[in-house]
Fold these 3 entries.
Entry 1:
Amino acid sequence: MTATAIQTTERRIVEVRNLVKHFPVDGSDDVVQAVDDVSFDIIGGETLGLVGESGCGKSTVGRCLLRLIEPTSGEVLFEGKNIVGRPNKQMQALRREMQIIFQDPYASLNPRLSIRSIVSEPLKIHRIGGKSEQNDRVADLLQKVGLDPKYADRYPHEFSGGQRQRIGIARALALNPKLVICDEPVSALDVSVQAQVVNLLQELQDEFGLTYLFISHGLAVVEHISDRVAVMYLGKIVEICKAEELYEHPLHPYTKALLSAIPIPDPTKKRDRIVLTGDVPTPINPPSGCRFRTRCPIAIDECAAIDPELREIKPGHFAACIRVDGYDSSQKVETTQ
Amino acid sequence: MSHLLEVSNLKTHFQTRAGLVRSVDNVRFNIEEGELLGLVGESGCGKSITALSIMRLISPPGKIVDGSIRFKGEELTTASEERMREIRGDDIAMIFQDPMTSLNPVYTVGEQIAEALRLHKKLDRKRAWAGAIEAMKEVSIPSPERRASNYPHQLSGGMRQRVMIAMALACDPEMLIADEPTTALDVTIQAQILELLNELRVSRKLAILLITHDLGVVAEVADRVCVMYTGKIVEESGVDEIFANPKHPYTQGLLRSVPKLTEIGSAKAERLKTIEGTVPSPTNLPFGCHFAPRCEYRLDMCTEGLIRLIDLPNGVKVRCVLHDEKKKFKIGRERTLADLATEAI
């Protein structure tokens, strides 16, 4: 049902163009190429999943979208307005529309503030309503995220991890944002609690028409919650398409390996696992050409020379790999071996 | 026939300011030679404390208050500290979740592995160093001669975990306790480490107690599974059986709340099934079945008395009155067992 809603009202809420973020390395001229020439769109009302392993740049992308980190170059358009280089005053007004939920529900809540202060802080900053209106809003928000409003005067340490994550969600929703960046929101939670929070995020999305960028290394959670998924490797997007398509017909060899590496909670399903050799190279000095080629099972000499662009291989299915051209990739790979 | 490791009625309690915490309460299980037993549960269920109890690494206010741990027939709960030092490493080795904090940052990894060999095998420095390189080779660390001279910070997370495994296995133990060995690692690296553990199990007939919260990991590598909740084992079963036919409502709930890959139909529209509520506070556990307040099949009798671990055919054990033959009649009075069985599935 959500899928049809997207098609009829399809509009881009975020457009990321050639986003680059390089971090200087102390005491040398090297740079960490955390994000390198990344472009994608987020469509209003959808959940775009962003997956990848640690250090691939997925959180940096999320933070660049809010300009919590200043991009090195490139453009981030939020509803058509470029936020890169925008003066801070104007940026603050735009931030009402875009919020973030963090991974660690322990570190992201100030232990010395009551829940009421935490959730109402965005309202105070943006001077919305008087004290009693703010209190009503806090009660309303806590109810929405499944917490009893009578707990508003308690402190974070009195809550469990799952409950704290609900508080973080309430805070993110306080300003009625359009876009919420969810940066590993369930990774620190136990499985049974994880499911509760994922469901809550979906319910809130339906109710408020939220758009999510859902950043996670948990591919199963991402598949469950996302409409489309982008896969990152070493600062680049290597594949992006609809969630079902990605999981059923992955094209990029990295996506294939990643999917085959996930342990499935069903012992009867023994799969042919592609175990990648070696580790992710350092983003200070990434390999030439395709960054995945050093671990790629199907790499050829050209891969070292050509930096593969994200190409539309099937309608709506983009992959950055010169070994993938059209149709069924798995057959193709075998025949060319 | 005796088991390699026999844990029976183990109780490890912590006296805290908030009250007595029964972290491990009446836990019993066995591990056979070459077997991989998965111990699963959510944070705070007592799975790591069980492992530390086996190694006798519980420090005050924690204490093993009752029960027995037998390794090849030898009682560990009463063994001298000196004897335990021999057993740790020689017979039972342990690896932890975070390889960065378990390695000493100011020594090279080769020195750290060699130290274990010098202490346990009484090798001289030169031989110990050669042994360290050999051990690193066995866990497939590329160019081990060079890597041995690296400090932990020069290695990646996956390489560090390999070093930990090399160190654990350097003295040829018969059993390895792996406490969340892949939790801190990325999936592609996790796959490498699981593969390695599996290989070692076969090549060395190594018994492994794998502690994890990840049901996927368990399904991939375990032979048998124990599920823990609030310090007690609530279900023990073969790996195929427990995933195909989980008996305890907690196990059922846990399996349902995991998002699964490539489910047929629209995953988007469906919500995940959850377990209502949260784990009770360890100092204030409910009477009777600890899971009862969250259980959808709760009966009055669940909160009336202690719930036994019931032995079912094929080595399956479950701590739930619904499977208690002796209470069948009583359950029948509340609801018919047949109804429950169909509902449960």
Entry 2:
Amino acid sequence: MSRVIGIDLGTTNSCVAIIENGQPMVIPNSGGYKTTPSMFGISQDGKRLVGHLAKRQAITNARNTISASKRLIGRRFDDPEVQKTIDLSPFEIVRGPNEDPRIKAGGKIFTCPEISGIILREMKRVAEEYLGETVREAVITVPAHFNDTQRQCTKDAGKIAGLDVLRIINEPTAAALAYGMNRAGEEKIAVYDLGGGTFDISILDISDGVVEVLATSGNTFLGGEDFDRRIVQHLVEWFEETEGVDLRGDTMALQRLKDAAEKGKCDLSMREVVEINLPFIASDAEGPRHLNYELTRENLENLVRDVIEGTIKCVEQCCVDADVRPDDIDQIVLVGGQSRMPLVQRRVMEFFGKRPHKGVNPDEVVGLGAAIQAAALLDSENDMLLLDVTPLSLGIGTFGGHFARLIERNTTVPVSKGHVFTTTRDDQSAVKIRVLQGESDIASENDLLGEFVLSGIPSAPKGEPEVEVSFDIDANGIVSVSARDLATGKEQSITVSSTGTLSDTEIDEIIEEHDLYEVQLRT
Amino acid sequence: MKQVENLMGQVFALVPDCDATRLSLTAAEGYLFSRIDGATPWRLLREMGGIPVDEADSCLSRWVEEGWLDIVSEAPSASSPEANAEQTNAEQADEVQAEPPTPEPPQILEIDESQIDERLDFDVSAQRRILEFEATLGLPYSELLDVPRGSEPNVIKRAYFKLSKEFHPDRYFRREIGSHAERLERIFKKILEAYEMLSDPDLCQVENQRTVAPCPEPSPEPTPEAPKPLTKLERLQQRMPFKIDQAVFASRREKAKEIFRAAERSMEAGRLVAAEASIRIAISFDPGRAEFKEALGSLRIRAAGSRATKLLAAPSERMSGGELREALKLLEDVLIYRPHDPELNDRAARVCLQLGEFNLAMGYVETLLERTPDVAAHHTLLGRIYREQNDLAAAVSAFEAALKLDEEDLDARRALASVRIGERNAARGGTA
């Protein structure tokens, strides 16, 4: 049997892990780094570059270097978050035929699952190089708040990379698995995951190898990159004020600023003050201009304080959902590079009233957890069990545009739930069942997963017929919905096959194209 | 109404030698007609669906008038409980009784040994454990989780985790476990339900009333106190724009049982199609009941099995193209329920080969070789497929593999010889 890997597909960095002799370990890439930048670029001479190679040339080739595509995956082009990204990205984002955002680089248009697929393929290659054998199966992690489409797109990306994706699991859950492995006793833990692009908080119950998710909450569009962006924005404003030069239109300058901001931010976790020094950042009639700025920790904290407060609000919500008081939490696990920031640690500590756990590496723990889940699924010797939950509520649209939840978010799967509904008009002979996913009480604000009609209801005054709607989610997260007229026993049902933004044929075409490309590389 | 009074409480049977092909019926009427088995009472017939009740009545009386149906005035076994129930219910017209069912005494069911399949990638004792546990799913929640009533949340959680480790479907992820896959989902959902109910004090109380005291004294009005925080149940009810009516569920469970009994009678009489339809309806009335789904599954397997025997009896060599296609379709149907049956796969591969569907044939042979790589005939079959596709090198190596396993496989020997002769002739032709 070939080996199965766990991949943490991050917004900024990705990480691949396996189980070796019963212990999870991260596989370093050929450069010796344990994480690989989630970047893809096409160089001036048409070469395709992934990871560190892509990052290295990002400054000189910003328009053709794609980063943070995870922020776009599975979203619609008109999504405000996509629009926000368009304003901030040095590369061009265009509207795809399926209303999905696509990215232009090197004169070619790429879909988001394709970009993620390229990065996953690189992670697969890193693992294969280390193991000396082909890898076919993987568990991939996504932010807890990803919806069905985003998860499906990530699965499609796996397919494009030539991987059979056993399961998509949540990043904080993976972190909890890694934390909980080989720990005896019972604990309630909170996983605070502030990564490059997303924020997640989960509360879990761990007991002798069983991990139960109690609640999870978060924001798919809040992360370390927002911190960088705040710094860049601040620097641009300051530069305009002092030097009178607007850097906003200069992609190369912006990319240099972003790099410097990221590095400065990381350094400020250890130091009180850093110097941001960018010579020749711009030039005008008066000659070259240099940027030299001293950024203090206090400075930075003031810039991002509201972002951090936003995460604390999510933590509060999560505690309410889990029915847990902050001081009931036994351990706090911090995940994601941004959680290294002293202000983040301080606020989390103040909220829970105890110090966060120090034993895990926030950059690697998610990848390790993915590998553990992969082993737990395939290896009958492995004793870990994850009791996973549905990330979003499921239900149907009812009269007056309301959303009736049948399965609440954070419900353990597999599960079946059913309720009885009735007609709203006299002699109504059919009902339309609209299957929705989301948290809004207003039906139209949630995602439509599918719909069907149950007809042949015998005529009766309104409110009299009884239609039972049942939802069933199996262990693989596949949702099926059925509606049955209790009087006649007549039944209609659908399996909600979540679709990504790409059709199967499109995926096959992409796979074929990339396979051709692989051949080209080696000859 | 007169017409209905005549029909009320009656049981219908087809007249002997009834040739239903001479009737012209709509699909819905045909469905109703197919349900008439000399055992299902009128009230159930008209409620079974597909057709409004008054139309069902008029159909029934028409068929009686036209001489298709006999009225059997009583159900075959007059003393059976459902016949009595039928009469009392008939007096109340079609008003459905809304009493909750009296709780069944906990009883350990015998497990069905035939469900243990040694060919599965699955320990026999684990299979037995699953079947045994499944048989206890009807027990009260606390007995199901094996915790004392009123246990601490921690104790309940530990019991739930322990059972989850044993029965969560992920424990058998992507393993060939046959019908146990459905069984595990059912078991896990039930223990999850038990855990949720027992760990919520309010839900727990409801459950205790259900299982301990069927007719509880109405509890005294609670004295007004400081407002308590909302319980999980209350929060849920507030958010839900509808109410759960337990009485409705109870009456439907009863109905499901009646229909299921009718199905069992059909099954005994060998009317598998009718039995299947009835079981489906029973399931739709009471989807939670494992017994029904179980019956449906074993019925389907039984039907598939009998069809398979018939199919395998007829030699495919003498079939015409159309008959072969038909046979392939039937085989595919049966293979859905018995995907790894070697005989069926072998037959399917041969039929495909005759039809020139080499890719399909290859698929079936691959299944065969995956399961039983040491049967020479399978390798021979593989070789034949390769030969038909003109991949002679692959064919030769398959035949050789067959001979290695069984030196006396004449088929392989002959085929190998003919390939070699063909090659030699081709070589000669080339040089000449």
Entry 3:
Amino acid sequence: MINLSNHTVTVCDTIPLFAPIDLSVQTGEIAVIMGASGVGKTSLLASIATRTDVIFKNQFRVFQESHQLFPWMTVRKNLELVCQKPYIDLVKRWNLEQYLDHSPTNLSGGQRQRFTLIRGLCSGLRTLLCDEPLSALDGLTGATVAKDFREIVHEENLTVVWVTHNVTEARIVGDSIYLLSKNGLKNITEEDDLIVSILSL
Amino acid sequence: MFRSFLYNILALSLILVGWHILYLVVQEPLIFPDSTSILSALYDLIWTAKFWFSFYYTMRTLLLSYIIGMFITIVIILLCIKYSWLKALFERYCAYFNPLPSFVLVPFMSLFMGLGAAVVYSIIIWNIVWQSGLQVLRAIETVNEQWGKHVQNLQWSGTKALTKVYIPAAISNLIGIASTSWANSWRILISLEVVFGSIGGYFGLGSYIIDVKSKLDIDQMYAILFVIALTGVIINGLLNNLKKKYSY
């Protein structure tokens, strides 16, 4: 699990990006963080990744917007190098079987993102920090992948922080949804309207 | 590939046509011999033991100094990665010494070493260290910026990080640097041989040019020039192909 209390991220060592926040993500929970561009979502994710207690007590993985497959080896080699668990079922489920022996440079952005997600899910790591992991996918495929991801996370009891700009994706994948602004982190409960909250920012 | 081959044929044909026009205009075989006599001289040359000894001496000198130069560079770079103060010093020395043409050092080095083969080795090594050192350092830093977080994220370190990530990521840039460095060393070596003539019993291709020129064997002189250019083009082509193969 991840516990942040009175946490903030600064730029130039002194200027805080947002007001201090409290965030608690339980094991088996997916916390989605949304917010305007430049508010500090990726910085928040990076600050969680560099917290020593997260690195050493749990394990972590960051999915950046850029794709992290090594271009000098095939996708299969990329997966084999990192995955501790069988990945082939997930590859078949997301219709990527025929691309396993391709170089990542020959794949589309969406295909690379799905492979990156598979690598994370099968890596055996318990905490996943995902930074817009489906940004290059079309709405329909993105929704399917998000739904599958949610199921696997709950089955495997992983802890996930998921950053996105996509409201539909947030609703599908998230157990809890937060809006980040310079005033801090606001938890969007079921009673709240997500769209209204975003517009009020 | 085929288009590149056609361009090469076109470029060589233009040189041959231009050469023949000059031959017809100048009408002085001691300055511009007929292209067929140069080809005939080239054919004779490849059956001469002296030519192959010169070729061997030149390649041996270049390879030896290149390997020593690269080894010194790699050791310095590894130390620079470990000690930031050394990196700061090395960057400054590169800025001071890299703009200095290698030939300027000939009078200075000959004070200590005379006009022997040691000067040739020293100048090529000097050129490799200051010219490629900073480039190698930048290439490694770029790889670290791009993949360092990823390696940290996967919790890899040591040999695994080096062999699976850092070396494959840097290899294309390193081959590019090696290629530039090789081309420069080749030019410097041939120029030094031309200037020095025979150096302490060492007789390379550049020395051969001076030798045949003094005997007024101009056809052979051009034939050797052709061999020097061709060798440079072949090695550069091989290294560039290797670079393309490892570019991602």
